[in-house]
């Protein structure tokens, strides 16, 4: 699993760079974010949650049946909406509350 950043959507805010715990994301000469070592991404989704431009897609690994399926996140008030597109065209949405999602 890893992320892919769409440089056309990236506005260069740098939020993903700040939150990546592995310091894997950098800016290119056009101030667009890119992931330097995608093989080192462990899929924490922190960058996904911070990107307001939906420029980051998170590709699910083949080991969990990913086969091209990906997630992206859209902020909607206090909620995050997780959109999943599977390789066979199915779509799924899950909403989480930013403040409540870490409560047990
Ligand atoms: S958070 Fe999104 S818009 Fe901001 S630099 Fe990263 S990819 Fe670009
Ligand atoms: S998913 Fe986590 S580890 Fe991977 S690039 Fe984003 S912030 Fe870094």
Automatic annotation (TrEMBL):
Keywords: 4Fe-4S, Iron, Iron-sulfur, Metal-binding. The keyword NADP does not apply. It comes from the Bacteria. Transmembrane segments: none annotated. Residues 1-30, 31-61 form the 4Fe-4S ferredoxin-type domain. InterPro entries: 4Fe4S_Fe-S-bd, 4Fe4S_Fe_S_CS, Fe-S_Ferredoxin. The keyword Zinc does not apply. Pfam families: Fer4_10. This is Ferredoxin family protein. The lineage of its organism: Bacteria, Bacillati, Bacillota, Clostridia, Eubacteriales.
């Amino acid at each position: 699993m890893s992320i892919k950043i769409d440089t056309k959507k990236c506005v260069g805010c740098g939020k993903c760079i700040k939150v990546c715990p592995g310091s894997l994301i950098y800016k290119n000469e056009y101030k667009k974010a890119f992931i330097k070592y995608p093989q080192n991404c462990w899929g924490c989704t922190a960058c996904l949650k911070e990107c307001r431009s939906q420029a980051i897609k998170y590709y699910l690994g083949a080991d969990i049946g990913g086969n091209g399926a990906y997630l992206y996140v859209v902020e909607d008030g206090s909620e995050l909406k997780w959109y999943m597109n599977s390789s066979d065209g199915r779509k799924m949405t899950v909403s989480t509350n930013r403040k409540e999602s870490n409560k047990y």
